[in-house]
Specification:
The complex is a heterodimer.
Chain A lengths: L8 H21 L22 E8 L6 H20 L7 E8 L4 H13 L6 E3 L3 H13 L4 E3 L12 E3 L8 H10 L4 E7 L2 H17 L2 E8 L7 H10 L3 E5 L4 H11 L9 E3 L4 H7 L1 H4 L3 E4 L8 H14 L7 H20 L4 H7 L4 E4 L2 E4 L12 E5 L5 E6 L24
Parallel strand pairs in A: 1-2, 1-3, 3-4, 4-5, 6-7, 6-8, 8-9, 9-10
Antiparallel strand pairs in A: 10-13, 11-12, 13-14
Helix pairs in contact in A: 2-12, 3-4, 5-6, 12-13
Chain B lengths: L2 H9 L1 H22 L2 H26 L7 H25 L6 H5 L15 H24 L6 H19 L10 E2 L3 E2 L2 E2 L3 H27 L1 H11 L1 H6 L4 H27 L1 E2 L6 H14 L6 H19 L4 H15 L7 H4 L6 H5 L1
Antiparallel strand pairs in B: 1-4, 2-3
Helix pairs in contact in B: 2-8, 3-8, 3-11, 3-12, 3-13, 4-6, 4-11, 6-11, 8-9, 8-11, 9-11, 12-13, 13-14
Classes of the chains: A alpha/beta, B mainly alpha.
Chain lengths: ~425, ~350
């Protein structure tokens, strides 16, 4: 017997017609701006009449990124507490509205919008993955608000509404390559997670390698969160490169370094240069698997400066002596101070005033002096190559001569022509 | 009125119209009046989940197919729409054949051939309606004709969602892990304008009503009876001479179509689509909403999807660092106390049956 779809077709048609009519009527009555027309600027609802001013702290407190991003939340809270103890910003107490980005880009976008439109915060601090930043960017641009993003990233971006206080590629990846080249590395193997940061980083590394006579012996990507590395590590071993450049993120690092140690590779015969492993991650990987390996950042807990001693002491006093401080935490801590200093300079919390006053604002941060570049909204940063030692901390073995100017589109490097070319 | 007569009334034709009327008043009248622009946008997002839920209610609640992979169809609709929006933005900025901004960053200089047709709105909408449906029909025929069912079907559909997300992560020409975001215009309307955001909400609400109407008609038709029969006693239906596989394929394809349309509306509302929104976890969240609402009822899945999404937002706003525990407890409590979902709450009240009612 054939399948007969005997619907009460008339009823269905009526219901659908009624729905379509209502929707059409309401929707067309509510039509707004069309393409090309000027959109009315969104009114900011930031209230600065009282004794307090609100800021948002948007970090993943649940999901896979929670382990990293909760540390950033703590650093932001510490900075706010210190600023309030010193009299606040423009005489107003700073109040944090915390939200959970839940490791999901859509949630980051949703919560960012909530912080701006419902809580009326003056600025938002947070975000970690590039995916979360890309998801939040249109929200901050459309609502004309400010995001302070504290993590090193792949560059090639400069939004008026974002301040990037982590390193861009010329403050982390290029110095790491310079260091490897200086130590006589002539061939490298690239291992990374499959998303935008490793792919962009490796594009830069390939261009650099070609210009500097370094041979790239292999380039492998694994899905984020993948823990199966026996094939890749064996390929790395048989390729026999002078060094490995590692752009893996998260849990994959644990599996990678265990397998790396397991097949008998050591930091002496084939060092691994990592750009996503900081103090927090070393414990998870196990010091015995990673001792002697290299990392490239702008800050380590062991940086020797009065500002850093004060920061580390304050952090341990607040959250416990067993806690460590890492680069993204330091960048987040710094970002709050930079915002406060910019507001003081501008004499106003308004986004346009903060943007106008930002250029040249500086702060004596734990990593050294950082200065905001008004054109790109990035900051100057000192590059540091660190070695992982037996106590689980990273120690500087090389550092750049002073802070490096941010160059997110790599315009100052001839060999990088075409990489950041968005014409 | 006690719950039982309300239920009886809603089954009549007048009752159906009243129900739709009430829903229309709430969605088109009350919600925009009471909610701020931001909350209305959130509701539009939740409504997209509810549209997926209506489809799952049909396929799982009425048809017994545990579709653990609706993220695939949701993702297809969403990515197809997102491709059109990116193309339209690029062409508005740089003229025909322009390369979308994210591709320039990924180093792609030439527009991939499969992107070109998506500059046409008509083609995009046709693909959103046809592609997932056709895929579901083919997949459904392959699976149901072989009498794959139960846990095997659930595992298969979930694996599909996982594979689809991984496939997309590897596609740099579809934004890879970051997905597609930063849309400026929706068929010529500026997305940043609050008035247009409200228009999107109305579109989402309208689609939800239409989808519920279609599901209602399917339930009340002969086909609906057949679908339930297949769910409860597939062998017997087969002995009666029906091809049970075809019956299932139709429900599966309709569910896929609903999910795809939901995805297409989701993209302009939320402003981003990435593999994180369509993989295994989001697919399970779709199912969870339906289970909590009551899978076999018409309105249950809608209520469940809205309730789960709302609870997630409300709890995470209240307790940013501990909301996942609260949400877990809530799920356990509902499933333990109300196995039939929220929709069964009326049935929990014992209703006195009058002799007349019993005789009827």
């Amino acid at each position: 017997m054939p399948l007969r779809l005997k619907l009460k077709a008339r009823d269905l048609a009526r219901t659908l017609a009624a729905t379509a009519a209502i929707t059409g009527l309401v929707a067309t009555a509510a039509c707004g701006t069309r393409a090309g027309e000027e959109t009315a600027a969104t009114e900011s609802c930031v209230d600065t009449s009282g004794d307090t001013v609100k800021v948002g702290s948007l970090n993943s407190l649940s999901g896979t990124m929670a382990i990293s991003e909760t540390t950033v939340r703590d650093a932001i809270a510490l900075a706010v507490k210190e600023i309030n103890a010193a009299g606040g910003v423009q005489g107003k107490t700073v109040e944090i509205v915390a939200e959970d980005g839940a490791s999901e880009p859509t949630v980051f976008a949703e919560k960012a919008e909530k912080l701006i439109r419902e809580d009326c915060v003056a600025a938002v601090f947070g975000g970690w993955t590039s995916a979360s930043r890309k998801a939040m960017l249109p929200v901050f641009e459309d609502n004309d608000s400010l995001l302070y993003y504290p993590v090193q990233y792949e560059g090639l971006e400069a939004s008026e509404n974002i301040f990037y206080t982590g390193a861009t590629t010329n403050q982390q990846i290029i110095p790491a390559l310079d260091y490897l080249a200086e130590t006589g590395v002539e061939s490298i193997y690239l291992v990374g997670s499959d998303y935008v940061f490793p792919r962009t980083a490796n594009a830069i590394i390939n261009a650099y390698a070609e210009a500097h006579g370094i041979e790239v012996l292999g380039e492998d990507y694994v899905t984020l969160g993948s823990t199966e590395f026996s094939t890749i590590v064996n390929q790395v071993k048989s390729a026999g490169a002078d060094a490995v450049f590692n752009t893996l993120n998260g849990d994959s690092n644990v599996a990678f370094f265990r397998e790396y140690a397991n097949v008998g590779l050591t930091a002496e015969d084939m060092p691994v240069m990592s750009v996503s492993i900081a103090e927090e991650e070393v414990g998870g990987i196990g010091v015995e698997n990673i001792e002697g390996q290299l990392a490239a950042w702008n800050y380590y807990q062991t940086v020797d400066s009065p500002a850093n001693t004060a920061f580390v002491e304050a952090f341990k006093a607040e959250y416990g002596a067993d806690r460590v401080t890492s680069d993204p935490m330091e960048a987040a801590y710094t970002s709050v101070y930079l915002w406060a200093a910019t507001v003081e300079k501008a004499g106003s919390f308004a986004v346009a005033d903060v943007q106008a006053a930002a250029d040249g604002v500086s702060f004596e941060s734990p990593e050294g002096t950082v200065v905001i570049d008004g054109d790109t909204h990035h900051v100057t940063k000192t590059a540091r190559i660190g070695e992982i030692r037996a106590d689980g901390l990273l120690y500087t073995v090389w550092e750049s001569e002073g802070p490096i100017e941010p160059d997110p589109f790599l315009e100052g490097y001839d060999w990088a022509a075409g990489l950041g070319d968005t014409e | 009125m006690s719950p039982a007569p309300v239920r009886m009334f809603l089954k009549t034709r007048l009752g159906t119209w009243t129900g739709f009327g009430a829903a229309a008043i709430v969605l088109f009248g009350l919600a925009p009046l009471l909610l701020s622009g931001f909350r209305l946008g959130l509701l539009a997002q939740f409504i997209c989940y509810a549209i997926v839920a209506v489809g799952i209610g049909l396929a799982w609640g009425r048809g017994g197919m545990l579709t653990l992979g609706q993220g695939v169809f949701f993702g297809m609709g969403a990515y197809l729409m997102a491709m059109h929006l990116k193309m339209a933005d690029a062409e508005f900025r740089n003229g025909p054949g322009a390369v979308p901004d994210f591709m320039e960053l990924a180093g792609i200089r030439e527009l991939p051939a499969y992107w070109a047709p998506f500059s046409s709105p008509a083609f995009t909408i046709a693909m959103i309606l046809l592609l997932p449906t056709a895929f579901a029909v083919l997949l459904g025929l392959a699976v149901f004709k072989r009498r794959v069912k139960g846990a095997y079907f659930a595992i298969l559909s979930q694996a599909l969602a996982g594979a689809f997300a991984i496939l997309l992560i590897g596609q740099q020409s579809l934004g890879g892990f970051n997905g597609l975001s930063r849309f400026q215009y929706f068929f010529g309307f500026t997305l940043a304008d609050p008035v247009n955001q409200q228009m999107l909400y109305f579109i989402a609400a309208g689609v939800l009503l239409a989808v519920v109407a279609i599901a209602l008609q399917l339930r009340r038709s002969r086909y609906g009876e057949l679908l339930v029969a297949v769910r409860d006693a597939e062998e017997r239906v087969r002995f009666l001479g029906y091809d049970a596989a075809n019956v299932k394929v139709v429900a599966y394809a309709v569910a896929a179509l609903f999910a795809s349309v939901a995805g297409a509306v989701f993209v302009p509302v939320v402003g981003i689509i990435s593999p994180a929104s369509i993989g295994i976890v989001p697919s399970i969240m779709f199912i969870l909403g339906v289970a909590i609402g009551g899978r076999a009822s018409l309105v249950g899945p809608v209520v469940g999807a809205l309730a789960v999404a709302w609870a997630q937002t409300a709890l995470s706003e209240q307790f940013p660092s501990a909301w996942t525990y609260a949400q877990g407890l809530l799920f356990i409590a509902i499933i333990a106390l109300l196995p039939g979902g929220i929709a069964s709450v009326f049935k929990r009240f014992p209703t006195k049956r009058t002799p007349v009612e019993a005789a009827a």
